[in-house]
Amino acid sequence: MIPLQGYSLITSLYQYNFQSEEVFMAMEERVWTGCDQLSRWWKEDLNALRDAMWFNAGHPVKISFKKETACSNTVKQLLVKSGLGSAAAMLPYLEPEVRKAKTYISHLETVSPMINKVGGGRYKWETLFEMMAYLENFPIWMSKEIVTVNNAPTHLRSLDTREKVVASIKEYCMRNACNIALYFGFYMVMVEKGDQFDGAKNLKKVYSLMALKKSHFGCYLTGTELFLDYCAYKAKQSDTTGVSRRMRMRDKAEEETCK
């Protein structure tokens, strides 16, 4: 109950209301439906019992603690191990903008090494990586509180709350959406052709990336074409390697003849 209330407080400012009830519904279905008698009792006065369980029962617990548990991956793992995976489904809480940026980073780390080989090195992502690392200094459950970061980069010092850092990350992702869509086009063709590569292999149906395909389709197409350049590059490298190998074999044969 405590982490669920924390999630509700972060997302809706209330410990329990209609906006966050889906989080609690999953828990109800998991626990109450397992016993017919308990399920019937629960449904007899549903609203009153929900109010008592999901709202009033948690009042003695500090709000800051509730929010902290909602953002803890350790709490999520403990719930799963206890057989309460339904309660952990929405945990730990992470801002949608940050969740999206994490997906982008996983995607960029997978594709960048290959795109850089065919002239894609002009796309620089250091700023996104830097801001995401900087964000680690700010607790999720205290988004508006000012935090002093020791030895913070000069250009990031004005971002003194998590809320400001998240807003900056969101703005960066929006500004670079076309380039990320280009990378996604490259990735999709690579996956569809069954190429072997290191990195994330399960991004084909990720909503945030699929949305970029729709909103920046021209850039996405450019990415698919860039993959053809990459294939040509690999073929050329393979051919060069083959020529070098044949030359070494010829030289060795000549050496044997001279002996």
UniProtKB/TrEMBL annotation:
Highest taxon of source: Eukaryota
Protein name: Uncharacterized protein
Organism: Arabidopsis thaliana
